[in-house]
Structure formats: C-alpha cells, structure tokens
Amino acid sequence: MLKLRYATALAAVAMSPYAHAQSAAEGTEDLVSHVTPPPTCELHVWPAARVSAVTQGAAAGLGLLGALIDSAAHADQNKRDTAFITGALDASAQARVLRDIDLPTQLHLPPSQVIIHEQGIDLKSDNPARLSDSKAQCYSEFVVRSLLYFKNAVYKGQMRTFLGLRSYDGDKVTFDFRDSRHENLEVKLPKEGEDTGPATDALLKAFRGDVVFFTDKFVKKYKR
Amino acid sequence: MLHKTLIFAGLLCAIAMPCHAQTSVEANAAQPHAPCALHIWPAATTHTTFQGWWKAGAVDGARRGIKGYPDLRADAIDSEQQALILKQIDWRAIHHDPELEVVVHQAPTGSEDDRGRTSRLVSNGSACYREIVVTSSLVEAATFSTRSVRILALRKTFEGDAAPVNFSSMAKAVITLPEQIQAGDPLIDEATRKAFAEAIGKFAVMQSFH
Hints:
The complex is a heterodimer of chains A (224) and B (210).
Chain A (H helix, E strand, L loop, with lengths): L1 H14 L1 H18 L6 E6 L3 E6 L7 H11 L1 H14 L2 H11 L1 H4 L5 E5 L21 E14 L6 E12 L2 E13 L12 H26 L2
Chain B lengths: L1 H29 L6 E5 L4 E6 L27 H10 L2 H4 L6 E4 L23 E15 L5 E12 L5 E10 L11 H23 L2
Parallel strand pairs in B: 1-3, 1-4, 2-4
Antiparallel strand pairs in B: 4-5, 5-6
C-alpha cells in the first residue's frame, strides 16, 4: 500500500506541467553539455591497392632460366595465395583492424574524423597532391600501399605490409612517412577445400602487428 | 521456517514441471517436421587479381584504369548475377533434404564481420537454421596459369540457441574460353558465370560434409 501511494505520488509529479518543463530543460542542458562538435581534422584511410604472393623453390636461385622455371612451377600456388589474401584481408577486414587500433590516438594525431575508403589507391611519391577531394585544413592520409606474402626454402611464410602516412597543413605536406614491416605467419595458407579460418586469423593478426609496428615507429620518429 | 520454504519451493516445482513438459510436447507436436532453413547471400562485388610479365599485383587494375591490366570481366558476376546463379543451384539435393527452406538474398549481408557474428541474420524462429555467405568472389589470371574464378565462402550452422559452427573454405573453377575469341565477346561473360556456378557447386558439396 505504501508502495502504491509512493508510485501514485511519483506519477502525479511526473505528469504535472512543471515536471515536464523541468525535464525538458534538463534534457536541453544535457544535450548542450554532452554533444561535442565533430573534430575538424580528417584522417583518410585507404585499404591495400596491391596484393602479391610469391613462393620460390630452389630453382629460383639458378639464374634467369631457373627463375622462369620456378615461376612457372609456382604459378598456380601464387595465383591462389594472392586471391586468398585479397579476399581474406579485403577492404572491410582491413577497416575493422584499423578501426580497432584507433589510428588517430595510436599516431598521436589531433582528434580526427576517420574516413575509410573502400577502394585501394596507389600512393605516388612524385605527386604531393591530396588523394581525396577534402579541403580540411588539418588533414592526414593513411595508405595501405601493398600486401606481400613471401615464402622460400629459407623463410617460412611471411606477410609484409607496406604503409604510408602523409599529413597536411592546408596544401603543405608536413610529413610523409613510408615503411614496411613483415610478420611471420604461424600457419600455411590454405588450398582449395581446406578450412580458411586459421589462415584468415593469422593474416589479420599479422596485418595488425605490421600496422602497430609502423605507427610506433612513426611516433618515435616524428612525435617525440 | 527454512523447512516450510523448501516444501513450498518443492510444491512450486512439482506444479511447474509438468506444465513445462506439456508445453514442450505441444510445441513439438505443433511442429513435427519444421523444415530447416538455409539463407544464402552473394558477395558485395567481384575483384580481380592479375600477375603478368610486366604488370602484377594491382587489385581491380582494369577497373581502376591502370595500364597493362586486362579487363577480366568481373562485372559479369556482380552481386546481382551471383544471386541469380545461387538460385539455380539445387541446394535441397546437395543437403539431401527435400523440405529445406532455401532463401537466396539479392544483396550482400552488410555485416562487417560474418565470421565473428554469433547471431542469425534472419530470425525466423526455426531451430535448424544455416547461412551460406559468399565472402569474396574473384576473377584471377596469371602468366603460366589459367584464368579462373575463385570464391571464398562461409557456412554458419545454428542449432537452437547454441553458438554457431563455422566452416569457411575456398573453391576455384577454370574459365574455359574458345581459342579464337575477341575481347568483349559475350561468351567471356557466359564462361565467367559458368565458372562461378561451378565454384559455388564445389563449395556447396564440400560444406555438406562438415
């Protein structure tokens, strides 16, 4: 009974115009205090524009003819591995990893809107123009330039990621940093019919490791 | 006091349990042969990979207008065409289930991580529910190798409320072209679609064993 009275009283207060006005006012205040404008800086991200896979056998070291024979012998495997990496580490998979890393924080950039593009783009060193149409004063570009899988008799499968970061203040390039890094893969790339799950996880892990290494190196070089 | 509480709890159980059992029996009786559901989605797009003598590595090279990359006619198996081909496959025969409820969706899943996803994309209430997602579709060509279509696909099996069981793999089919053929010949598109259907067929069979 006591509870019911309490509930009735609460309802009466809640339904009164005063209570409504007060809630509305509080709500507005909340909105004002919590909604912050989006950052003015922009970080544009492009996924890998190039993917290659190269497996070499012993013949690769026997001159031009040996290299040709080796290339022919591994053509199907290289084609398969290239396609697998392209599919398993597609634009959305790369975006997922990069979002998870929180690039602006990791790169010590000012708070930035992250714009992730779907199609890869080639970063040319002789062209300092921006890769997007953005006119933002504070603007950066993070480009996954290439993914390369390499394996031979000496090296087990390794995934090398080529990355680039450019920052602008207006039209002026403030820094242009490029590097690559490889991670050894713990599993073999799959053949047709095999479970692709473990290799997909290994590729994602290697990609993440490569990106974190790159960002750490960048911070060490430019931000300390 | 504790004794009385235990008796009361026991009585409640005794009343509740037959009711629960009865409900289960009724539910089973109402759906004695609830068909299994299979939902299928195409990939968002078809990419191309090319390894030539002088040019290699660019993904979607021709689409991006890079010189030296041939047009591998990936648009012949865009999302819409994939859905059409997926509809032509006899999924009931592959699963040995004539009552299988098959739904081929026109558009890709839109899910950012189909492998990691633990929920169903379609909640139809069926206890037996599977999803097949073509996660990637590629047309590939290389020196010393044939032109082919490759798919990466994922099958998710949901049984009741248990976590889904994933099986992901890839399948390839060679694009067989007549010897004398000009670039842009409609036969290329037809052969590409045929190879896609063959690759899907291979995956459909391999996933039925897992």
